[in-house]
Amino acid sequence: MQFEAFSASGLAAYLSGIPAVREQLGGDTDLQVVEVGDGNLNYVYFVSSVRDPRHSVVVKQAPPFLRLVGEGWPLPRERMEREVEALRRFGALCPQHVPSVFHADSGKYLMVMQRLMSHRVLRQGLTEGIVYPRLADHISTFLARTLFHGSDLYLSAAEKKEAVRANINTELCRITEDLVFTFPFEDAASNVYSPALPAGAIDRLRTHEPLRRAAADMKWAFMNRAETLVHGDLHTGSVMANESETYVIDPEFAFYGPFGFDTGAFVANLLLAYYARDWHDRLKGRDPREYQRWLLGQVAQVWNGFAEKFAGLWRMHERKAGRAFIGGPADTRAAEAYREDFMRQLFADTLGFAGCKMIRRIVGMAKVAEITSIADPAVRALVELRCLRLAEALLVRRHELASIEAVTALAAAVLAQDIEA
Ligand code: SR1
Ligand code: MG
């Protein structure tokens, strides 16, 4: 079927014919449709009852091309199916952190989901300096539950292999392979450099051997280590939150990949927000340090919370099964020692992926608003240089950094360093 972007009246008529959606809209057929998507890939609409706007849903339509670029970058329609499946899977594991899907129609490239009425995109909230008291607890729960239950640590070998097969996401993985792991490290046509970013910093990405080897290692891991169903794009624009609730949205990049890809993505985006903070607070005449401390605290709490919950789920599962992943009884010293090795590797992967994710947001085509909105080119370049410096250290020293506290101390040390922009 040909892709057709809906007109407002066409979409309203289509939705009115779907009982599960009509129910969400209070049975009303007089509907207001507003296009709100500003993302790179999709069209997003809020559809609400005119009589009672509290009855409202989100419609997401995925055109068979990359919205950011246009028809010159085709994408398959199955990407919507990947996203729906991931939302349902993650929703079953973490209903409190994933919006409900009311309807999906791959023929029309669309899905209808729960409208999060009182939540905002986390990236915007962080740029405004909002403190989210439950954020680290919620995100670490989401990460632990989704990553653990998709893996061989929980599923039977046959279930896991079937899940790998069912979640192949070739085209969207290709976007990540190119934009995160390849283009930033070469003179790619799609790279975009901010005007005052020194040529030496760009050159370093193309020539500094330890950094390039580390990034290549992460690319290999991304392409080959089918460890669990990852969200695949867990940046702060893929989270909606308020004081008491946190929802993870947009898993269209979901596929079987390394655990650390999701943990690394989230940590990377907190660190980008950390370095951008100076500008946003000073603009408002505020001291940035308090919020920066909070952001680094979130980095530590997300990782520590995740590691504890993930290991806890694993231990509990082995006890219930009466058998450890390594064979033999649960709760042996060897089983616990293996768990420690495993978590150490997952931590190093988290840092390596975080480094790549930070670099791509500085030199790649898809950037982050907290940095692009810095109006002074020299200040922006300084923020970008700090991000690049930390990212390089995370990549190159990922096996040597022994704790998340060592990472947050390093991030603070980079902020305190004199860097010439
Ligand atoms: C060209 S698509 C750019 C980026 O947007 C998504 O959020 C992913 O991060 C992707 O890499
Ligand atoms: Mg997205």
What does this molecule look like?
There is one protein chain. This protein has 2 domains: 107 residues, Phosphorylase Kinase, domain 1 (2-Layer Sandwich); 297 residues, Aminoglycoside phosphotransferase (APH), C-terminal lobe (Aminoglycoside 3'-phosphotransferase, Chain: A, domain 2), CATH 3.90.1200. The protein is α+β, with helices and mostly antiparallel strands and 421 residues long. Helix 9 packs across helix 14, helix 10 packs antiparallel against helix 11 and helix 12 packs antiparallel against helix 14. The strands form 4 sheets. Strands 1-2-3-7-6 form a 5-stranded antiparallel β-sheet, with helices on both faces. A 3-stranded antiparallel β-sheet has the order 8-10-11. Strand 10 and strand 11 form a beta hairpin. 53% of the residues lie in helices and 12% in strands. The longest helix is centred in the last third of the chain and has 33 residues. The model has no long low-confidence stretch (mean pLDDT 96). It binds 5-S-methyl-5-thio-alpha-D-ribofuranose (SR1) and magnesium ion. Magnesium ion binds next to loops.
